[in-house]
């Protein structure tokens, strides 16, 4: 019974997703709740404060564990690194009809064997229990015994289920019944009350951004066949919507099931390039539709917030789509939720802040005890004792810190906005200050978005023909190659202009053909449908009237290709044209059609930096009873005929090289993640300055095992020629013989998987006269050089080291590889991964998933990674990075936390500078707030000992005249104009920062204690008579003279300490306001500088002025001028010492580096420890005879046979 309760007590939310949570059921006990409220009163609210921050403790105190079905309170625990706990109350509502409940789309057998919904006998209806977590409604499903999302169509439906169950639409009654469970299709963002000033502006913008979403008229197809216009907020998952011919913004996520359409997904990807959508195939199987379509599922998805720009109706004249997600479950809802509930940031600074705040809380508790003990010893009245205790408890906790940090972020956002950079996750701005590795996409980011068509290299007679250049008036002759260039694209015509991918546009422009703007229809196998027609231009002399593009298989980064099924006007047969990455295209071509010089020709062009696209085609006929839209891509893309290469020229953006040089000079590592050819990427990397002229680049090509063939890695050196082009040098290792100084200048090096867990280089070469067996080379970057190979020795005696190891000592080396090679190395050669992650610079032919994987691997060795891309294929990488910035014309997109309207990488240094500025400001504000607490505490300790307090106006003066102006103005400093060659310290619990606070605390204690004791030694000092130290003061009423009665706060102690603490606060305010190298100098912040000068002037005025009304207002007393001079001397000495220590010692980076080196301090980052280990481990490694995995398995089998 207990085991059953334990199982029913726990469940999962969003299992398998990144938002996965544990959920535990509890039931509230009323008597415990009463005790809890009593505890709030007895602890003066401390218990409530504790339960607010530790909600699990509240649940354990007030509730009993129970099953999730009976729970009225749920404890939810996230599964991420934060392990955050929070509680949610379970609510309920009633429904009268169960026949169309949304989550009852399960098997009938399951319904019969499962539990029934709770029944409310009084109202004769069924009870439905639910809760909200971050705007998402979760419904209790008794048939599955779990809470599940509402507003989502079940992903277990197969492709045929989508067509059959939802292809005819719902009736009005079904829709109304299901809406009770799913809720409204609306994204409601409440406008925050005006008293929450810091967040008001953002909530208003969000409200305006989603306002139109809730008021769109949508055409819905009913089961009766009627089309009804409904409000978008009435849509539910499973509804069948009809896309109109006019432009519209989608109010939900949907799956297209018929017809075609063109979507502008700029809100989603950040790239305003129209995307063609195809209908979900009606395949009769039991595989869930998203698994069946695999990585291509987005080809059939219509996302909320994206714009439908054009439709292609089916034979019935309609374009239909089934609603998949509604409300906050949609893509746009995710964007809004990511703004409202930003993902927690793993920043060491925040963890240090937590520990220091905990330490300050302990200090405040000590102050509370001190005030109570002192008050009790001196028999203070209970009222005064309680007052002093509360003051001591609150003054140690810097409550002004959160609003000060929020104001800092607001200023930073405004500065970024002026540069065209917009942010939906403000907390990540400070994280940008810690970035030490920046990843860049290539096309559209480092290079121009547009491509220039350089030429076409056709094939013929089993070899490549002469290059065809697209000069004025020179067009391709008619043939399959021209057909591919004219039709193998996804271009569309909108408002009389051609839109689409820049590569497609340039390719089609070179053909000299035109796209017919009219809505064309064509008949295939007796079925009529819409199509896109391309026709020859006026100057083209071809024997055809045009080509109908019947079906598109859109480009996919994962598949690295696209294809179209076309039909030449007047012909019956169909033609498939395919274009894509050369390495991918030849997999689908007949081997006899691929020229023998394919690789050499491809290398020739890619090494010059050209982007090379392969073209192929085949003719085929459609079988009877087979629909064109039900053709499987894998079946038609086979047995193709290779046509040749399309050569595109992609120039570097003029801003790329200066920015990369700026990043390199700031010691920021740069990495390229691209889907382009590896050798093209190498050329761009060298030409852009990502690699210095003295650096060496190794091209790695890893091969997976096949049969008895073991996995191995080919290593090649990429060198520049005189024209600054790259050249792949096949000479990868030079091994000199001791006896006769023979050089092996041409050698392929393979890295074999050894049974010992090490990896051996095997230099293989056909040199029979040398009688030399395989040479074993350990791929250790620590070894100094390959010195010699004894000609007369066997492999067991040879001592060799890594071929590239001498580059470690002479200059830096880099690795370039494809995504496939990276995966192979990660799987079969894990010992090489640290070296790959530390020195890998160019990663080509990367799928979106592989980009995200590399970024996560870099983060695992403590790199702070930034990512800059155009958003199209970089969405995953932009989200995975600590700070991703998308180059887009839009202000916000789901693609990344930052969006830049500057369409080049100059936005990255701007973001880095601003991030460092904010980070340093964070540290300065925190140090000031900590010192504010300590200065106030020390003053309070002295005052409480004398049974006195500062006056109310004196407290207000410190808060309003000093702290509030600092909160509002310290963050106004702009970032430094130049990136420093190092980052700001990423933690608070580091010696420089801790010593800074501790030393300033010591200075404060010294000054205040000196003033306290020296004051009591003065001849005019008196605890009772405070008005006769300098000028006799009295108050006259007519002819009578009445002596003044001092207030409890009016004495020599409060006057002296208040002046000193006030100026002390101004001193730390000024000293902690850092300027260079991460911020502009303090004098450039005119408002802050003005306030500092004004504050000093006011306090000096209070110190030396003799104004009786001022004395009465501020609760201060007159003191001799020489004592005022002593106070001024004390605070001036405090300023001089504090400024000197802070600037010359605590901020002396070179001094601290020498101290760290002297004491051999360990690095805090794992990648630095790895770099240090590689630099120190430079001894040659002896490698024994190579044992391959094949030999190991063979030996194992022989041992088993012998047994």
From TrEMBL:
Residues annotated as transmembrane: 34-51, 353-373, 385-411, 918-943, 955-972, 993-1015, 1052-1072, 1084-1105, 1121-1141
Keyword Oxidoreductase: no
Subcellular location: Membrane
Superkingdom to which the source organism belongs: Eukaryota
Pfam family, one: E1-E2_ATPase
Primary location: membrane
Molecular function in Gene Ontology: ATP binding; ATP hydrolysis activity; ATPase-coupled monoatomic cation transmembrane transporter activity; metal ion binding; P-type transmembrane transporter activity; polyamine transmembrane transporter activity
Any one GO biological process: intracellular calcium ion homeostasis
Catalytic activity: ATP + H2O = ADP + phosphate + H(+)
Keyword Metal-binding tagged: yes
Domain P5B-type ATPase N-terminal: 18-141
Domain named P-type ATPase A: residues: 217-339
Family to which this protein belongs: Belongs to the cation transport ATPase (P-type) (TC 3.A.3) family. Type V subfamily.
Annotated protein name in UniProt: Cation-transporting ATPase
Organism: Xenopus laevis
